[in-house]
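Quick one: structure tokens for this chain, please?
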Amino acid sequence: MRDVLLTTVRGLGFGSVYALLAVSFVIIYKSSKVISFAQPALMLAGAVLVSYLAGPVGFYLAVPLAAVAIGMLGWGLERTTIRPMIGRPVFVVAIITLGLDIAIRVVVNVFIGPDVRNVGDPWGLSTVDVLGLPVQERYIAMAVVLLVVGAGLFAFFRYSRYGLAMRASSLDQETALVQGVPVGSMTALAWAMAAGIAAVAGAFVGAGGGVDQSTWVIALKALPAIIIGGLDSIGGAVVGGLLVGLVESFFATYQGEYLPFLGQNFSLVSPYVLLLVVLLVRPYGLFGTREVERV
């Protein structure tokens, strides 16, 4: 039971980071119906910026500063590269985001260098006793950040003027325009928010181990998370991210003992196996909106 609980805690910890990344994907998808493949690069850029800022200002101030800076970068990318593509096929815009991802990572890799950069987090691999279990402090921090960001997004979309405008834009852009909603500005705001959240996730991806030029791959685990939860559901993204973290953690711990025939490192592909299982049962994800087309 002790091993099960520790495995669960580890899964929820990393799942919290996957959930943050998945939320950043969903925010952009809801605003423009495009999956932004630039999120891994924005996550990496945020982590690297935190690593440079943590020394002068400290980790706790470096994270929000990096989130704001990368959020402004996301806003600028939408204005300069995505906005001119309005009316073009969705796959064209998706390819552009893939190009943005490559271009940003090329620049960021220069600042990373050949070694691992420490993000300056105050926890490392330190543990704290929780009900008799040695829980790594970084897992607790990851879960707390997810709760704070989740609560903030809920309040923003539910009660703020801009949040309501973004919801209206995501539901029906033409109707929102008729009602006076600045749809273009709401899309840019969505990109800024998604980039900032990705930057926060990047800071916690590097917690305890640092970041290098291959860290961006971790963001790809958010893709099965958003599909499992539903492409247009922020709550589903959170649930999907936590499920991916749990499945990966349990396979990493027990697969070698109970399912050795699956080979080594099967935990790396276990999120995609979960994805296939969920899609067989619910093709639109656990919380996704079912699309009905009249023929």
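DSSP finds eleven helices and two strands in the chain.
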